[in-house]
């Protein structure tokens, strides 16, 4: 990448994205009624930058132990903190005027597709770390071997493979667990962000790039959303060049962090940070209830 913006749709003017309407007719294209997404992100994203901290060392797992299930060491406190970050994240999304101009179906799709990476990005900004322990949840093989012998009224472990935004199965503080490698992937991303000492403006641009994801299936205004993401990338690049003039690799490092973020599975995030306290929750229903206040 060499510090340059990735090749996406050209932005003709600051604050104005060049986009073509979809064949079905995009309800949000054309002249904008509000300032650019970049201005909106910066104006709305007023939270102070997380204080400096030294990232904790990551324990690397061998290949044979990477799938070993782990759970939160302090589930109540960590889940409560993650829930607060999720609520703040959804308020941020609702405050972006360009998001509000999208069709309702596109809004729901972007929330379903982006809540997990936005949450983890918010955890990084707020300096929220977590520790894990080995889980007491039986392995899948143990479930298969013992499930046939369970009585109808006996305890069961419900596994929900789900689609995007699924919550995982089981419930209770002792239940649940995600693969060690998955938990380490989240911790690696958090440490990457803290090592880079990302500023409030950089977090805002990163959130815009994550929120407006044109690769989500079924979008009516895909080209417009792609232009918004491209605009966020360009603004991040310009900001880095202005503030970090002596660091020609910073934009590339931030883009690497974005790629790490996109590899984090939403089912893992739900299973690690929400399942311990609220059980086999349907994250899609929970998100829409929180977002629309139903």
UniProtKB/TrEMBL annotation:
Compositionally skewed regions (Gly residues) per UniProt: 162-176
Question: Could you tell me which residue ranges the NR LBD domain spans?
Answer: 50-294
Q: Which SUPFAM superfamilies match?
A: Nuclear receptor ligand-binding domain
Q: Which GO terms describe its cellular component?
A: cytoplasm; nucleus
Q: Which UniProt keywords apply?
A: Cytoplasm, DNA-binding, Metal-binding, Nucleus, Receptor, Repressor, Transcription, Transcription regulation, Zinc, Zinc-finger
Q: Which terms in the Gene Ontology molecular function aspect does this entry carry?
A: DNA binding; transcription corepressor activity; zinc ion binding
**Places the protein is found:** Cytoplasm; Nucleus
Q: Does the keyword Nucleus apply?
A: yes
Tell me which domain of life the UniProt entry assigns to the organism this sequence originates from.
Eukaryota
**Entry's InterPro entries?**
NHR-like_dom_sf, NR0B1/2, Nucl_hrmn_rcpt_lig-bd, Nuclear_hrmn_rcpt
Spell out the residue ranges making up region: Disordered.
1-28, 147-176
What family is reported?
A: Belongs to the nuclear hormone receptor family. NR0 subfamily.
Under what name is this protein listed? Nuclear receptor subfamily 0 group B member 1
């Amino acid at each position: 990448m060499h510090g340059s913006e990735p090749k996406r749709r050209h932005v003709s003017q600051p604050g104005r994205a060049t986009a073509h309407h979809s064949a079905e007719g995009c309800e949000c294209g054309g002249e904008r009624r509000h300032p650019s997404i970049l201005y909106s992100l910066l104006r709305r994203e007023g939270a102070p930058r997380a204080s400096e901290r030294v990232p904790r060392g990551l324990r690397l797992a061998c290949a044979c132990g990477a799938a070993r299930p782990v759970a939160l060491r302090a589930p109540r406190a960590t889940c409560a903190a993650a829930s607060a970050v999720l609520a703040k994240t959804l308020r941020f999304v609702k405050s972006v005027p360009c998001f509000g101009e999208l069709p309702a179906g596109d809004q729901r799709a972007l929330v379903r597709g982006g809540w997990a990476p936005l949450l983890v990005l918010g955890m990084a900004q707020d300096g929220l770390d977590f520790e894990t322990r080995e889980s007491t949840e039986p392995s899948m093989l143990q479930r298969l071997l013992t499930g046939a012998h369970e009585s109808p009224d006996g305890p069961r472990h419900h596994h929900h493979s789900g689609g995007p935004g699924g919550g995982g199965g089981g419930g209770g503080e002792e239940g649940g667990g995600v693969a060690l490698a998955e938990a380490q992937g989240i911790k690696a991303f958090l440490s990457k962000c803290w090592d880079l000492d990302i500023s409030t403006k950089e977090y805002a641009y990163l959130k815009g790039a994550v929120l407006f994801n044109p690769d989500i299936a079924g979008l009516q205004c895909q080209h417009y959303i792609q232009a918004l993401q491209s605009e966020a990338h360009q603004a991040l690049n310009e900001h880095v060049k202005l503030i970090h003039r002596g660091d020609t690799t910073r934009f590339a490092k931030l883009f690497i962090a974005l790629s790490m973020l996109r590899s984090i599975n939403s089912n893992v995030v739900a299973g690690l940070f929400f399942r311990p306290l609220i059980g086999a929750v349907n994250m899609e229903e929970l998100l829409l209830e929180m977002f629309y206040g139903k």
